[in-house]
Amino acid sequence: MKSLLKLTYQSLCLMMTVLAFSFAAQGVAVDEQMLDDPVQEARARILMQEIRCLVCQNQSIVDSNAELAQDLRGVVREQIAAGKDDSDVKAYLVDRYGDWVLLKPPFKGGTLFLWLSPILFLFMLAYVMISQRRTVARNTSQPQPLSAKEQAALKTLLDKEKPDSDFKEQEQGKTS
Amino acid sequence: MNRFIPFISFAGLVILFAAMMSSERNPKELKSALIDKPIPAFSLPALIADKPIISDSDLPSDTPYIVNFFASWCVPCRAEHDSLINLKQRGIPIIGVSYKDTPQASLRFLNELGDPYMLSISDERGRTGIDFGVTGVPETFIVDANGIIRYRHWGPVVGEAALAKVFAALEKVEQ
Fold first, then answer.
1. Which value does ipTM take for this structure?
2. Are residues A101 and A134 located together in one domain of the fold?
3. Looking at the 3D structure of chain A, how many domains does it have?
4. From the candidates B5, B99, B130, which should be mutated to test the interface with A, based on the most A CB atoms within 10 A?
5. How far is residue A90's CA from residue A48's CA, in Å, rounded to a whole number?
6. What are the beta bridge partners of residue B44?
7. Using CB atoms, which residue from A57, A71, A96 is nearest to B33?
8. N or C end of chain B: smaller count of CB under 10 Å?
9. What's the rounded mean pLDDT across residues A15-39?
10. Of the segments A63-67, A85-89, A139-143, B30-34, which one has the largest average pLDDT value?
């Protein structure tokens, strides 16, 4: 019974994976003029996935139906057909729209914080964890034995209590 | 001192969020990559002119001017039209680029609302728009006397705040 459930689960996972890939493959609108050379077209498609649609802003130009995305797909295809390499096409778009047109921001001065902040936060987390652990260690360490002076002070305190307890004993003696 | 760290970081976040949410900032508006760059070259058919093809060499020299992208299908462009007429009356030459629109429709639009442009050209395919880094219409560029783009207004120039910004940018360019 258990193995049957496991099998069903596994085949479901497989089906979903296959479906996901087949949807991804149909990304581009069908009414578009594609490049005749399938190798170039495949290269153009991969490049398009790295270019941001500036109208919808969180989609690549492959995923977007906006008119500007269509035009930009046309630009990418034209340039690839003209023999430009990927970095040329990217540079062409960055000249016009800025770094933001690339879905993956470049590593440079202005984006240093963006790229390095995860490491920074990791260090901050490590610092907090270590300092916390130190406090805990300090709080749970064995107490020091009382010094002679403290022992004396304790003794006087206990002696002060004595008459009181004698009194109680007397009281108890009376009633019994 | 350690007691204040949470308070200080909270105050820092409040300041950060307040700055990010201030009305001046529109997160959808992208900074133009063309600021302080020369105006891109183009060669496009004229909308109304005796010359069939207009190129960047036909643009005014030795004087600042405005380049305005518009389209007849664009509703905010209608809203912006009065501001353009206003700018024209101020004496600044405006170049109109009709973006992804048929020349006929653009002409109808200008006949209906009035023509604020010194020169109007038709960018039916939208490629010159891409060269200017246009993401939609309307967009307005202020170009100085040397042909360098100094300011880009994203969206319609409507309302006092937008007009004030455009006028401030113009004054800077006219100095």
1. 0.84
2. no
3. 2
4. B130
5. 10
6. B54
7. A96
8. N
9. 65
10. A85-89
Task: Evaluate whether B136 touches B126 at the Cβ level (below 8 Å).
Answer: no
* Model confidence at A164: pLDDT above 80: no
A113, A101: one domain: no
Q: Give contacts of A89 with chain B, Cβ < 8 Å.
A: none
CA-closest candidate to residue A76, choices A35, A38, A48, A98: A48
3-state secondary structure of A52: strand
- The whole domain housing A63 covers 2-106
Tokens for B13? Answer: 């976040």
Nearest Cβ partner of B130 from A57, A71, A94?
A: A71
Is A19's pLDDT higher than 60? no
Q: How many CA atoms lie within 13 A of A86 on its CB side?
A: 13
> How much is the pLDDT for B101?
95
Place of tokens 């109304």: B48
CB contact under 8 A, B100 and A100: no
Residue type, position A86, single letter: D
* Interval B85-144: pLDDT, tens: 999 999 999 999 999 999 999 999 999 999 999 999 999 999 999 999 999 899 999 999
Indicate if A35 and A89 belong to the same structural domain. Answer: yes
One domain, residues A95 and A114: no
Question: Do the Cβ atoms of A98 and B32 come within 8 Å?
Answer: yes
Name residue, tokens 């990927």: A86
How far away is chain A from the Cα of B126, in angstroms, using its nearest Cα? 8
Distance separating alpha carbons of residues A34 and A68, to the nearest angstrom: 17
- Is there a domain that residue A120 lies in? yes
Q: Which of A106, A127, A161 is the last residue of a domain?
A: A106
